Amino acid sequence: MAYQGETNVISFQASATITEFQLVKRDSDGYVLPCNSDEDVPVGIAQRGAVSGDQVEVCVGGISFARAGDTLTLGTHQLLMPSDSVAGALVPYDGTDTNTQIACAEFIGSSSAAANDQILVIYRGAVGIQA
Fold first, then answer.
1. 31-53 per-position pLDDT tens digit
2. What is the pTM of this model?
3. pLDDT per residue over 54-106, tens digit each?
């Protein structure tokens, strides 16, 4: 699939092992590691894999590939948030949790995707949404 668009990428130091196209958050030292909760505040999507201490490029806004954490259907699951069960993956925003959930991306890829598929998204930055 070909696409064009603006993508903003910044390098961060990794504080854990990161897989290509994982959603990442910052730790208290400003380093990045994979998101692992729907309450995590993501900083962006890692553009390649890294281990602790490596520099890793992170898409902080724009079009990027990402990892699906659940089944996604275009037209139904536009708004995505960090997964509670698959580190660094995106799942549909559901609005059922009593805590603040963090929506951060829009699914723009093919008509559907399954868990662990590589998907195309527009990363829009963390937007806290109170359920």
1. 999 999 988 999 999 999 999 99
2. 0.91
3. 999 999 999 999 999 999 998 888 899 999 899 999 999 877 766 677 889 99
Element (H, E) at 56: strand 55-67
Distance CA 116, CA 2 (A): 21
Match 């504080």 to its residue by tokens.
Answer: 15
Distance set, CA 63 to CA 3, 96, 97 (Å):
9, 27, 28
Contacts for 105 with CB less than 8 Å, ≥ 6 apart: 23, 45, 66, 79, 80, 90, 121, 122, 123, 124
Tokens of 21: 């196209």
